Fold each of these.
Amino acid sequence: MVDATREPHSLATASGLLLGTLLLAMGVGAILGWLLGSAGLGLLIGAVLGIPLAVFVVYRVYSRQT
């Protein structure tokens, strides 16, 4: 059994990081798309780029844990 005091990151932390990073990337994409004339396309591009970005953020946070 894993000691909860030694494990500062949980599944909720990882989920929050994934969702937060993805939503941030989608928001930035939508704003840039709106400025360039197509908010929907910007939102889509933000979502596509946000998925690997979110995975990278979670990887970086959990790799520093050791």
Amino acid sequence: MSDQTPNYDIIIAIIALVSSAITAALTAIFSRKNDVRLKQLENELAIKRAEQDARRDYEYEARKRLYQECEPTLFQFAELSESAVRRIYALSRNAKDGNLGPDRYWLSTDHYFMRSTIYRLLAPLAAFKLLQHRLTSIDLKLDPSINIQYHLAKILYYTFSSSQELAKSDPAIPYDPDQIGEGSKDLGEVAKKERRVKYPEQFWLQGLKVGMLDILSERFILSETENGNVRIKSFGEFEQQFFEKNDSAVPHDNNGIFEVFITIFSYFHPRTRPVLWRVLITQAYLYNAIKNIRNADDKFNISNIDEFVKLFEIDKVKSKCSWMQPLEIIPDEEFNAPFKAAENYLKAQLADVLELVQRKNHS
């Protein structure tokens, strides 16, 4: 036994030595792996920091450009919008005072009021066109408030060309200004004109085609060659350029470019121009929403869809657009019909905007 004892000691020593060598080797291997992994993590973190810095720099520059490009036009759009909604309310007030209708020629004979109506209702649309031109390469998603204002303004722009859709909006009413529907095909021009005068609520033109809307709105945009500035003309500039100085209501340039707009408002009354009245109510809703979002500034925070709907001030519009004269009796259903139609039209048009609101609430 004694002869074998040293052998055991040698074996144990060898095992310890091998174990130590293996441990050292494994430690070296894992150490190298850890160093490599640590380097990889450091690189990944550096890349992420660089990406975050680049994203932050991009968003900063993009936001700065967004505000530089948008704010002056948005400010002018807000001012013009306030003027437009006041004119819509004024039309209702004048109907209530008995100044509008087929037997009252005040709107057609008061040339200043007609010209200022053209300006007040079309100038905000021109501001939107200007805004649209400036935003072709700017990411609106960087500012939810401006993004939603832009989408509402876009819906607003096309209201005059949406007369057919608003006529069909529940509760639908008949509207055939081109007289191409049933019972109109075989009529001559004289008969069509007689029907247009006798039944203006159905056959009188109460909207604008998109092409004409573009032409009219772009007439309000002024490019100043001396400084390269592009802006919306003032009312004075508009009046001086497009109207004769003899107080005529008929524009004198380009064969009467605004004559079609004057036509749709000739002898206007909410009852005899119900489709146009739906257009104006829809505009009032949209102007109020845009104004309220803009006035909220950085406090803009809509918690739910109900809060969003409040921005349109539906009850206020109904109150301001009450056109019934003191002794006039109008069924509630008839009076409320254009408001319901405008609201139903907006529900369909606002799908994308409501999605933006919901996305903002969950962000």
Amino acid sequence: MTPPSGKQETTTPRAAGAQRAPATDTSAAKAPSVREAVVDGAREALKGAVLGKRPYLKEAFANPYNLSLLLGSLAASVLTLNPFIAVAALGLEGLWLLHGPDSSLLRRLLWDPKFEKLRLALEAQERAERTRNLQDSDQRRVEALVARQQEINTLAAQNPSFTGDLLRNELLKTSRLVDAFIDMAVTCARYEEYLNSVDAAQIKKERQRWASEVESSAQDDVQADIAKRNLSILDKRIERMAEIRRYVKIARGQLDLIENSFQLIADQIVTMQSPHELSGQLDELLDGVEAIKQTAADTEKLLNSL
């Protein structure tokens, strides 16, 4: 047996080191959080510019062709000592910035494709972050659903019956369904990981043991009370794990329903005569998703209580 003095001599330096460690760990943890905040802030700003009101004026000014012409004209004015070149260049620049950003042709041919490309890249990056903990099979399902959504959007845009705000509203619903699909897949994966970590057979075995204790300790109030409490807790665990399994089964079925419905919509959309035909199918899917969300909230409470 080690003498008390020996313990003090060996543990004192470690204790001092342990007291200094949190300060180092905290400072090390702060740096990544600051970097992450800056990156997230920049990403949100870019996302707002791409998905919100598109900065056509900025694109009209801050592009290499416009800047080259403007700066070249100003440089020529300085080199030739001719102020009229600078005045003309600034006047033309003002006219360009006044009318250029409003050109529907330039928006369609130059700027909108660029914004769309940025939007798709941002969505792909966010989707990869959200699905990084999914199994490969579920990640492939998400990517296949996104590809199907893009196919639906393309076919809907080509259908002459689908025009204006009605089309945009319906396509926003497909984005909501893709987001809901990812959320449900992530939740299912987390619940399944939890269920796999629990030995259900061992819990049932423990329950049988405490049930026997309740029967055999009828004359001992204290022992019977402890046995009944253990039995009650195990019964609750079994019941709540059954609820979690039920949610996973329902959510997995909803995932299949969204996939199959997107496939059906892609098959039908070319011949649809009105956006309302598409709206009915999408609204039905969204109603099912909302019901699953409520079930998920209830199941989350059960999981937290465990």
